[in-house]
Design brief:
With about 400 residues, this protein is of the alpha+beta class. It is about 60% helix and about 15% strand. Helix 1 packs antiparallel against helix 4 (about 130-170), helix 4 runs parallel beside helix 5 and helix 8 runs antiparallel to helix 10. The model has no long low-confidence stretch (mean pLDDT about 80).
Amino acid sequence: MIITSLRSKIRVVFSLTLLLLVALFLYSVKYDRAIFEEHTIEQEKAITHYLYDYNLKYGKIDEAYLEAQNLSLITDKGMVVQIKRFFKDKEQGKLKRYAVDTYHLKRIMLIHNDRFQLILENKNKVKFPIKRAILFAIVFLLIVLLYWWILKSLKPLSTLKRQIQTFSEGNLDISCKSDKQDEIAEVANEFDHAVTMIRELIQSRQLFLRAIMHELKTPIAKGRLVSEMLPDEKSKARLHSIFERLNLLIDEFAKIEKITSKNFELHMHTYKMSDLIEASIDLLMVENPKRLITVNIEKDYSVNVDFELFTLVLKNLLDNGIKYSTDKHITVNIENNTLTISNTGEVLSEPLENYFKPFHTSKKGLGLGLYIVKSILDIHQKELQYSHNDGVNTFSIH
């Protein structure tokens, strides 16, 4: 398993440190026991030799010496019989002249020779290293506190991550300033400054676009009033249609501004694709649309979309199809959960992705049509596909 998270790496480092510390402590305790065991064996051998020499010299056991060495003489007959049987079983029925073993958690010494027989209990125990244990406990606690301190220092990083996620979702009303002095605080403050600059830039752009659109609506409204005064009904209708078209374009620019700034709320509902096509044809505002558009509905289906935005997508695709077709006619097919818009024309000179860029070079428009289409389809998690066969361009939405 590959560890990529910074927190996970810190946990691994501190966990290994604590494990090594515990292992070092256990090894030190084990080493002390080994040293004590070695020292005890040498001491017991020396005691055996001393007791033999003392008995040889004085004909008795030096009990004061045994007490000084923290050894006690076992005299209980029942216990003596049990211990002898234990040692005999260990040596297959024979008693050795000298043997040491653990019996019922007691260290027992058996001295058996031609002068005397003794069974002694060695009461010396290895002492637990309290001072060392306290030292290890202090170091262990310091490491745990250091781990907690580092994780606490990384906590603002999680907050910053959430703020960045919120920012990526289009919410610019965030603040991640920090009054601390570490590197995370520096990053947070720089990001907060960047967000502030982006927010001010977007607000100024919105203000600029809204001011332009507001100023344009005034002469359009005046032009519509003047057109109403014309005596020629045909000229009046044409001018009225032109001003309606200009007003519709301004509304579309307003929608583009909302889409690009993500300053909108989707109203998702289920609609028949045929109804969406009909509404998008109405948005084209062309006379006798049937001479330009042929709609074939083999199998209608429903989609969950925002009505205004999705009809804007279809309207732009229809408009582009008419403008760039050689015969000024397009065919719309609805079947198998797929919408296709086809026209006769030359193959695209560039990959489709290039046309998704805003203000792409175009001889018949601003180069915003497919940019708007791509932006809205991304919001709806749908994809536009393109193919060219036998002189026919086909755009499809699945």
